[in-house]
Amino acid sequence: MQEIKIFHAAIKDIPAMALKIKAENKKIIGHLCSYTPEEIIHAAGFHPFRLFSSKSDIVLAENHLQAYCCSLVRGVLEDSLSGKLDFIDGTVFPHTCDSIQRLSDIWRMNKKYGFFADVILPVKLNTDSARTYMIDVLTKFKKEVETAAETKITDDDLNASIKTFNLIRKNLSAIYALQSQKPGIIKGSDLYALVKGSMIMDKNEVADLLPLIADNLEKMDTPETEGKRIVVSGSICDSPDIYTAIEDAGGIVVGDDLCTGQRWFDGEIDEKNTNPVNAIADRLMTRIICPAKHKGTTLRGENIVSLAKENRADGVIFILLKFCDPHAFDYPWLKDFLEKEGIKTMLIEIDDQQQSSGQLSTRFETFIHMI
Amino acid sequence: MQDKSSDKSAEKRKIKSAKIMREIMTTYYLDALTAGQNSKQVAWITSGGPVEPLVAMDIIPVYPENHSAMIGASKMGEDLCSKAEDMGYSSDLCSYARADISCSIVKGGPLGGLPKPDMLICCNNICGTVLKWYEIQARLYKVPLFILDTPVCHTQYSPEIAKYVQAQVKEYIIFLEKITKRDFDYDRMVKVGKLAVEAQKLWKKILNTTANKPSPMSAFDAFFFLALIVTLRGTQTAVDFYTKLLEEMEQRIKEDISIIPDEKYRLLWDNLPLWYQLKWLSNKFSDHNACLVADTYTTAWCSALNYTDENDFLNSIAQAYTRIYLNIGIDQMADQVLDMIKFYDVDGFIMHSNRSCKPYSFGQMDIMKIVQEKAKIPVLMIEADMVDPRSFSQSQVETRIDAFMEIIKQRSN
Ligand code: SF4
Ligand code: SF4
Asked: Which domains does chain A have, with CATH numbers?
């Protein structure tokens, strides 16, 4: 599909794509978390841009972060220090995990880009006081962005951005649902490109393209190819090869619980809410939860079980980044929850830097044959 | 064999209060272990959590982190950590958490496991690890979990943060009332608050005695004496004990009794200790005539003092517990380190790059650079872990300490 190619092209040469955005006189604001209130950045006329590591060798970041820090955090810092991110005009750090917390300090102390903001969101997402705090933090962030953009973000501006993002979310959800209904209708690497592309490309362009893709997929028949239905779970999976390796091993990814997947586009913002900041806060409080946040002690387990069931998964593959604490703490009990329901699981620990999927292939094959 | 006179001087150098402290801790753990029989409730709480309301409600606080440190010190860390790995927990996770999680299942460790909690109190001012760890224990023990969410003060304690944490302090009280089915005792809270402040003031004075040359105690002693300020803060027992300990230190200074025989060099330590290697490490330094006079870890238990109002304790908890050492930006941490370097007049800075504790260890390299530039003293970074000895290479660390001490000796000549 031609539209999908645009996404592939964008993620293949990210700096080139960024320059295109800059040419439109837009400032690029980098961020590292699916909880970033992108609508606020977008409403100020800035371009919210999810940072990924270019996977260069770690050289300069060695002077700031020990080897037992996750490869995403080290990789992105490396890119920053080596000048690979010089196209960004600012950075936003929502509080995520301990590693991001310190990355934010190091980043701020390096004073590389014009705009810098810590958006210290609540960790608890299940109390009234946390919701009030969430709204307070977003309101404050809105002011900071307004100052940086030298503009006032009106409710209309925000509502327009909310609409755009909702459209993106709705269509990505639809595409995922179609893949689950008609497995194999879209290649894993294409799905990956759509989500990653949506996180970095011009939002209006994305909002235009995704519905076309969804429409096309809607019209397509279920492909003949058979495969075991797989749900993947983890932090980020920034490697198309992993998707391909799963397919080569006889699996089809029919759903995910990933930062670079459903966790980013889950849940729409209520467009009828007359207070757009509150509406943004409410989505952040209710969308599918990340392990660095808290909402009861069993919710993630229930989520992964229902995700697996709804998508009639034959198995769940946990793809965790090495040294990622929040996910590593959740893995043993999520696995238990799934296995109690008779759903088989496998775990792979990867390094964001590592690109070869050779070894993984054999492990995927063994697992997929077994389920 | 040592001769009689050095035996004698070693005896003189021993800190007498250590014995009393051991007795107090034994009594405390016995009380905790028999809580059920005495129809008392037990709360597990994180080391940075506000314990005072528990004390005011007669709930026995138990600290899994302190217990994990004991596991480390009794060299049971490797076994328990690897058992957690067998349960699926990555070896890259905090070894306090790993040791405690597996101990809850296998009932191992020096005490045969901690008393079962009636509730869990988790304050995330130290790390995100405790959140995940307490969620695990809440599922295992099926008990209520209260989370005090203290947003990180990268650059400031903002009005939004203040409002949020203050609201949660109220929720905390309501939570305790619900679980105990008793009204909160505000009068008792006032007394407990005063005792907590008093104990922290004493603790600070005790730590400050090491500014004396030679130092009457070392950071190794502080690691040991820390247990009370953590576990029994808010009680008369802690105040009485630290009053005596302070007297002992002052007496030692008067009599010129130093903790190491011939103190020539003074060092500052960063991060948690290596619980399983305290003795070796302390001998290692003293062989070089170096005394670890202070550390950032035990000092963290007086940092709340800056923001605590002893006459309005409950209302000052929010700020005091949010603005602690680990919950601030690296640049502010570096400032505190620089202050300590000056106050204790140290010749070198040793940083334990601790695989277990990411919020403490990431940023150390930046702090190191700041210290080198501003304080112009040598800095050594050693890689290890506080409880799990598998990440520690004795020979490597030994060589590095020897080389580091050479530099310090040359500089002072
Ligand atoms: S992968 Fe894990 S450790 Fe790394 S930034 Fe994400 S949540 Fe943090
Ligand atoms: S050692 Fe560090 S990571 Fe572990 S519980 Fe303590 S503060 Fe948290």
From this structure: 2-153 (3.40.50.11890)
Tell which residue, B314, B304, B332, has the closest CA to residue B230: B304
| Chain B nearest C-alpha distance from A201 (Å) | 30
Question: Cα separations (Å) of B409 from A118, B94, B406?
Answer: 43, 35, 5
Q: Where do runs of H (alpha helix) occur along B209-312?
A: 219-231, 236-254, 278-287, 296-299
- Does B73 map to a domain? yes
The HSE-up count of residue B363 (CA atoms within 13 Å, CB side) is 30
Chain A contact set for B89 (CB, 8 A): 328-329, 332
Identify all chain A residues contacting B127, using CB atoms and an 8 Å cutoff. 98
CA distance B235 to B244: 15
Closest partner residue to A105 (CB to CB) among B94, B154, B158 is B154
Amino acid, res. A329: F
Q: What is the pLDDT of residue A359?
A: 83
Q: Tell me how far CA of residue B393 lies from CA of A184, B354, B380, B385, B404, in angstroms.
A: 50, 13, 15, 10, 16
- Check whether A147 has a pLDDT greater than 70: yes
Partner-chain residue, chosen from A97, A106, A332, that has the shortest CB–CB distance to B88: A332
Task: Check A130 against B164: CB less than 8 A apart.
Answer: yes
Helices (H) and strands (E) in chain B, counts: 18, 8
Residues with C-beta less than 6 Å from any ligand 1 atom: A 70, 72-73, 96-97, 99-100, 235, 292, 321, 324-327
Residue B2's pLDDT band (boundaries 50, 70, 90)? very low
Chain A, nearest residue to B383 by Cα: A66
| Domain membership flag for residue B170 | yes
Q: What 3-state class would DSSP assign to B192?
A: helix
Check if the beta carbon of residue B376 is closer than 8 Å to that of residue A119. Answer: no
Q: What share of chain B is helix, strand, coil (3-state, %, to 5)?
A: 60, 10, 30
Share of chain B above pLDDT 90, in %: 94
Number of domains in chain B: 1
Is B313 a domain residue? yes
Question: Which chain A residues have a beta carbon less than 8 Å from that of B145?
Answer: 297
- Res. B4: pLDDT tops 60: no
Looking at residue A26, what DSSP letter applies? -
B280 touches chain A (CB under 8 A): no
CA distances from A318 to A256, A295, B177, B357 (A): 10, 21, 41, 24
Q: Search chain A and give the residue with CA nearest B327.
A: A101
In a domain, B2, yes or no: no
- Which strand (E) or helix (H) includes residue A175? helix A155-181
Residue B318 domain boundaries: 7-412
Query: For residue A28, which phi and psi values (nearest 5 degrees)?
Result: -100, 125
Beta bridge partners of B334: none
**CA-closest candidate to residue B59, choices B32, B37, B34, B33:** B32
Average pLDDT over residues A153-176: 98
A173 C-alpha vs ligand 1 centroid, how far in Å? 24
Side-chain-facing half-sphere of A199: CA atoms under 13 Å: 26
pLDDT of the residue at A58: 96
Q: Which of B286, B194, B210, B197 is nearest to B245 (CA)?
A: B210
> Which pair of structure tokens corresponds to residue A362?
């054999």
Q: For A284, phi and psi rounded to 5 degrees?
A: -65, -30
CA–CA separation, B72 and A59 (whole Å): 34
What's the pLDDT at B1? 42
Q: What is the pLDDT of residue B5?
A: 63
CA distance B397 to chain A (A): 17
CA distances A3 to A188, A190, A194, A196, B202, Å, are 16, 11, 10, 14, 69
Residue B328 has pLDDT above 60, yes or no: yes
pLDDT band at B7 (very low <50, low <70, confident <90, very high): confident
Which chain A residue's Cα is nearest to B139? Answer: A297
